[in-house]
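FAQ: What does a multi-protein file look like?

Like this. Sequence, then C-alpha cells, then the next protein.
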Amino acid sequence: DLDNPLKRLVTSFIEDFASWILGAEVLEVISRNIELPPEPDSFLTDQVFLVKLVDKRYVVLHIEFQGRRTPKPMPLRELDYMSRLAQTYREIELYSVVFYVGRGAGRHDKGIHKINNSKGGVSLYWQYQVIRLWEMSAEELLVLGKPALLPLIGQTEIIAPEIILPQVVESLKTVSDEEMRGRLFTELMALMNDEEMLNMLENLIEKDELLMDTPFLRRIRTKSREDGLKEGIEEGLERGLEKGLEKGRQKGELSRYHQDILRVLALRFDPPAQSRQQLEQLMANITDRVELDKLLAAAVQSQSLADFQSIADISEKTY
C-alpha cells in the first residue's frame, strides 16, 4: 500500500533524497529506471537515478523499498541488482540503499554480506546502505531541514505527535511552489499509518485553510467521509496524481532519453551549435531503449565528444 506513495515522493524530490543518502551536494539527477539485462531473465528495479555531484562526479543511485515480507531475501536481490547495474553502467560509481518500511522489516539486515571460500578467504563481498524508517525518530528527519523528506514522518517513531505534527505542517508551508507543496501534503497523509495522527493532520490543514481550494484535496476529503480518510487519499492519488504522472511518463518517453544524453554532453563538452544539431539528428534516429541507455553511459564515460560520436555512429548503423 505504501509502495506507490514512496516512489512518487522520491521521484518528485529526488535531489533532496540523493543529497541526504549520498551525504553530498547534488548538481543534477536524471531518472534511469530501466529493465536490467541479461535477457530473458530481466526485471525491473524500484528506482535508479544518475546523479551528478557538484564536484562533477557521476553516481548511479539505486533505491529499493521493502516491507516485512519478500519472496527472495533482500541481500540476494541486492546482489542481483547491483551486479546488473555494474554491467550496465561500467566504471561509474554505484550506491545502493534499501528503505525498510513497517515495524520489524529488515531487522537483521546490516547491509554487509559476503560468501567465504574453502581457504578462509572471501569469494564474494557486497554492501549497501540500510535505512529502517521504523527505527528512526521523527526528530531525525525534522533536523535535516529538507521539507521533501518530511512525508516519511508517518513511517518513523513519533513520540509526541501534538508537538511534531504542527512543526511538520509549518515546515511544509514554507515550500513556495504551490504544486510541490500540495504534493508534499498529499504524500504526508498517504504515508501516515496512525488514524489518530491522520485526523490531527487533517485538522491542522483545515485550521490553516491549506489546500482547501484544490479540487484534488476536496476529492480526497469527500471520499474520506464515506470510506475513511486514508482510503480517500489512496483513491485521490490513484485517480488524480498517479494518473497524471503516468500520462506524463508515457508521453515523450523516448524524447526524454534523448534530452538526457544531450544534456550530459552539453555539460561535459559544451559542443558548438553545429555539433549540437548533428547530435540531435543522430539521437532522433535511435529509438531502442537499451541502446539509448548504453549511449547515456557512453556520454558520461567518453573522454571527448569525438569518442562519443564514434560510439553513437556505430549504434546508428545497427538500426
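And here is the next protein:
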Amino acid sequence: MKRRSLVTALLTLPAVGLAIRSMPGADSSTITNADIQAMQNDWEALIPQGFQPPSVADKVKFSAAEWRDRLTPAQFDVLREDGTERPFTSPLNNEKQAGLYVCAGCELPLFTSQMKYDSGTGWPSFFTTIPDAMGTKRDYRFGWTRTEYHCARCNGHQGHVFNDGPKPTGQRWCNNGVALKFLAAS
C-alpha cells in the first residue's frame, strides 16, 4: 500500500461523514427510482456527435509499458496501480455541462452528467452507473472492507462505492477524476 494513499484516506475520513450528512440534493423527493431507470436506459442520448462508444464486450488489455505510453503518470497510478488522487484536485468536481463520463483508459461510458452529485468529499461522485459498465471486488487494504470498482472493459481502477449516498439508491460511487474523461453532449 502506498503511504500517500493511506494518509489521504485517513485525513479525509472525518470530512466525509460531515459532507454526506449536509449534501445538497440528497432529498429522496428530488429523484425517483423511475428517474434512475430512465437515466440508465437513456444514457445514449448524451453521446456527443462523432463519438462512437466502445462495447464492454471488446475487452482491452495492454502491457504495463503500453499503458504507460497511453496514460499520463497520474492516470497510470490510479487506473493501473489502484492509486488515489488527492481530494479537491480534479476539475471534474466543478463540471456542470450535460454529457458522458468515460474511462480515461478505454473510453467506455461509465456515468452521465445526470448521475453526478456533489458529495462534498473532493472527488467526482455519482449515485448510479451506466448498466454493465463496472466490475467490483472487495478491497481490504486499509484494514476494513470496501468495495472497489473498475471499468468492465479495461479493468482500470476508478474508485470505491459506498452506501452513504443520496436516496433512492443510497450509493456514492466515489471516482478519481484522473480516471475519467468528460465528453460534453452535442
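Q: Is there any per-entry metadata?
A: Some entries carry free-text notes. For the entry above: Helices lie at 3-21, 33-41, 64-70, 73-81.
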